[in-house]
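ok, trying the design again with the full structure, not the truncated one.
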């Protein structure tokens, strides 16, 4: 099993009605050298300007991005090539990120390589440190700038740091 840290940017709060604009994924391992980045053409006429602005892209720019079916197939191929066994999805806000990735995989490819479960990084950290009021974000090295690969990398750095500090066993 391989842990894959994922971060997405979207132009609204839910998949289907709104679009995933971009996403990044990083294999959680020392060095964090293996990553994937996808930019997706909108699937809906609906979008919230304030939500899209977080991604740093304009609506006009997103309309020139790749067709979602192509990007999701590229991501599935990358996961198959770069991971051992079934990849395991982990994210800072897995409720949001997972919902888009899961919906896009099922809608465009008919299956999700991650299966039906995911892990929330923040909840995992709270359990490891045994304090529901703690946050892992101070453990990031890479700046959180809403570029999804950078954000996934920073979250993976935090996971590697606290797993080492607290003896949390991770997949190899």
């Amino acid at each position: 099993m391989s842990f894959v840290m994922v971060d997405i940017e979207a132009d609204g709060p839910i998949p289907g009605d709104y679009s995933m604009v971009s996403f990044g994924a990083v294999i959680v391992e020392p060095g964090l050298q293996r990553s994937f980045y996808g930019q997706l053409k909108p699937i809906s006429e609906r979008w919230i300007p304030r939500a899209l602005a977080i991604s740093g892209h304009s609506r006009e720019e997103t309309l020139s991005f790749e067709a979602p079916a192509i990007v999701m197939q590229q991501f599935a191929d990358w996961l198959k090539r770069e991971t051992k066994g079934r990849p395991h999805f982990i994210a800072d806000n897995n409720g949001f990120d997972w919902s888009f990735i899961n919906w896009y995989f099922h809608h465009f490819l008919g299956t999700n390589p991650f299966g039906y479960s995911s892990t929330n990084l923040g909840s995992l950290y709270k359990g490891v440190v045994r304090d529901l009021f703690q946050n892992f974000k101070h453990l990031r090295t890479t700046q959180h700038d809403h570029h999804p690969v950078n954000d996934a990398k920073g979250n993976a750095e935090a996971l590697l740091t606290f797993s080492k500090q607290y003896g949390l066993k991770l997949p190899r």
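Keeping the full-length input from now on. The two ends are 8 Å apart (CA to CA).
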